[in-house]
Prior knowledge:
Elements: H1 8-47, H2 52-76, H3 78-100, H4 112-129, H5 139-142, H6 149-155, H7 159-211, H8 216-262, H9 267-282, E1 288-289, E2 297-298
Antiparallel strand pairs: 1-2
Amino acid sequence: MDFSDFPNYFKAASIASAKFQRYYKSIKRSAVILLILAVIVMFYSFQHSEGLTIVYGVIAVLVALSLILTLLLMIKKYDQLWQECLNFKASCKTATWQFVMSVGEFATLQDRDELQRSFENRMQHIIKEYQELIPHLDSAALKQELLTAKMFELREASFEEKKSFYAQERILVLNDIYFNKAIEHHQKYKLWSLNLILAQVFALGAILFLVLEINAGWSIVALVTMLLSSLVSWLELQSNLERKQRYTLALRELEGMQQGLSKVTLESELDEFVWDTERLISSPNAYWLISGAQKGKQEIVV
């Protein structure tokens, strides 16, 4: 499905998540650059003994600006808003695929007005869980259709068309996304591994210079910098390794889903397959409502 084929809340959440992601990364990047500039200016002070008051003043300004940006991120909570928008987006997407594939509470409904009311009711339950996000959503996107013509068109498709469409547009699309993410974090893991090795080699070089009493001032700075670089590298190594393994596991699960879908031969089997698959691939981000007697919230955690 194209972006325009999804409900208005999905589009609004997508736009908002991209906006908050951009805000968070831009401010975070600026804060880090300011700290790097402060370190560079500090290095300048080792080579000059005059005018250090101005140099220290510049360092103080740079650190203060970085602190202001850090406090801004903590107050605005752009990272949390970004994640909440992604969760809201995942919830809308799951509900959309259930509607298109005639799953859950949408399985037995045929009348267009009843389908409209049922989907609106489902979305209202989801919206209640993300009330704080609504003021941040794109107003232009919210004015668009809740149910698009494409959603009704796909819902009325034949069994084979639905099965093929779900395989191509849901499972294979996710497969491509997870594959690219796994490759991305694998490359980052290799880069941080190289950085860790180089940092420790340079740290040993700085220790040797200190033992030989060569440029003691610069050697201390280099040693501290390399030790900090090693610490950051260890943290990034673990983080990227965990993400790579998580996406690799997701790829294996998607492979199993593709094999399972190929064995589906009945409409009822397809409904059950889509229900179970959506529970798996959307967890733990999507908000789920269990149809039937149970009307509470269920957290789906793999």
